[in-house]
Write a structure and sequence with these properties.
Blueprint: H1 3-6, H2 11-15, H3 19-40, H4 45-48, H5 51-60, E1 67-70, H6 77-85, H7 120-134, E2 140-145, H8 152-161, E3 168-174, H9 185-195, H10 197-210, H11 214-231, H12 234-239, E4 243-249, H13 253-268, E5 274-279, H14 287-291, H15 319-333, E6 337-341, H16 351-356, E7 361-363, H17 368-380, E8 384-390, H18 391-394, H19 398-406, E9 413-417, H20 434-439, E10 445-447, H21 452-464, E11 469-472, E12 496-499, E13 504-509, H22 513-523, E14 526-529, E15 532-534, H23 538-547, E16 550-558, H24 563-574, E17 580-585, H25 595-601, H26 606-616, H27 618-630
Parallel strand pairs: 1-2, 2-3, 3-5, 4-5, 6-7, 6-8, 8-9, 9-11, 10-11, 13-14, 13-16, 16-17
Antiparallel strand pairs: 10-15, 12-14
Length: 631
Amino acid sequence: MSSLLSHIQSPADLRRLSRTQLHPLADELRAFLLDSVARTGGHLSSNLGTVELTVALHYVFNTPEDRLVWDVGHQTYPHKILTGRRDRMHSLRQQGGISGFPRREESEYDTFGTAHSSTSISAALGMALAAKIKGENRNAVAIIGDGAMTAGMAFEALNNAGVADGRLLVVLNDNDMSISPPVGALNRYLAQLMSGQFYAAAKNVGKQVLKNAPPLFELAKRLEEQAKGMVVPATLFEKFGFNYIGPIDGHDLDSLIPTLENIRHLLDTDSGPQFLHVVTKKGQGYKQAEADPVAYHGPGKFDPAVGLTQPAAPPKTTFTQVFGQWLCDMAAADPRLVGITPAMREGSGMVEFERRFPARYFDVGIAEQHAVTFAAGLACEGLKPVVAIYSTFLQRGYDQLIHDVALQNLPVVFALDRAGLVGADGATHAGAYDIAFLRCIPNMAVACPADEAECRQLLSTAFEQNHPVAVRYPRGAGVGAVQPAGLDGLPYGRGEWTRKGQGVAILAFGTLLHPALAAAEKLGASVANMRWAKPIDVDLLRELAQSHQALVTLEEGCLQGGAGSAVLEALQAEGFNVPVLQLGLPDEFIEHGDPARLLAMLGLDAAGIERSVRQRFADLLAAGAGLKAAA
């Protein structure tokens, strides 16, 4: 361990360093960060870009008394390292280890739990005004990226903060990069800072005129930077009531620290809300990540000396790739199809679709609410929108889903990636609730494919409908089922009896069909692939209830209000009084960890399913075994 970083156990230690020591500390921090993430996997590009900014914030502000709120939070690894968690970085995003996002229970320096975007300004404003109400002299700082600034919630907070009397600083970390390439009018507005023709022309002329007078040339460069700050973004944020400062180089500690000290003085003298615009580079200091920040956004383990490499054996096709291929195939067959993503082009598998159908591809930025209502508007005019969105992010567009899509019964397909547990990203990104929050909405349908082939087929079925349909599928690969070449769907609202046994029938929703089949072999039970959480296949359910003494429902989603609840409701409506065991995600937030291990821990692997069924229906299974032996 290098000398400076090894002595930093808290920001108080950092603040004891001299200014000149901060430069080598930042270098050490960046090197440690790169080595650590290469060993564990995790978010890399964004964290390399916030090293100097993190050092400067903790150096100038009296954390944790002054509150730092990091938007999204996937850029907080330097913050974690400097706040006493350096020795735990080897456990990052692993079961029992530290989270990849800020968590209040993990550290007093994590003042607000984040992972979804665009919440920081609202939270920091709440903290600033709480301090005022309580008579506490402390500051609140929101650090938000330019990608997160595309969300409406950020502007709602700015609108409120500009007239609120709190000691609030908003730091815009402008790296010209969210996860997918940034889009929208705001990004173009900020991009003028570096690319405007007027400035480019002026700079070229200045270079020619002043190249033989170095002092004047340096002065001109400084004046140019000042002019940019005055003309381009200042007006926008000052209209909200903020004092705008910047832009400044977010990797230049000699600029960052005195600027932050001046801002802290303004906050201490109650000069109103402050807005600092810093320009950083994702992947800073690691050339591979600088060249391709998307590829290094969230890499797995790798050798920093080599960089990312292709695996020796081709990986299995993921559900995301299945969706991406289906989207292209269906778009080629039906010109009405349009694809929408809220800033998750790569994550949702839409890169090829954008390349082939650019006029029908819409990245609306980190704006899930807008994405849903935008789709509704397209559907009103006879188009067939497909909204590719993570299950956890659809939660953010719930009102629009009900009011703008379902109430008007518009044919919008929601391709819900990352349904169920997601592994290392943990509770904030788990798609645990979509069945429950979707099936209660009139006109909505919810499909749960068991494998890659069914995913493609059920997407086609969803697209054929004249009402809203969600198709939920997990992160990663399935069992390797061969996909059909065509675009034929499966029967709407129908499941199938997959394995015929006796006594107990397991009703599986989604990819847990496969561990259910393995458990059923040991139990002698029947298995049904239900396929649809809404509508429930009542005919199949009736047949299963009439021919079995007990039923088991199985889903990778929350039990409260989920598919098992739908089965119970249908059984009651049909007048059946058969005992039902519901298996699924418990009423708690599931922490980060390896998905297979988490499922086993929750009893949702084959062994766990078998164990739960035997515990609940021991007498029934014993009686069935006895009858079989007698026969």
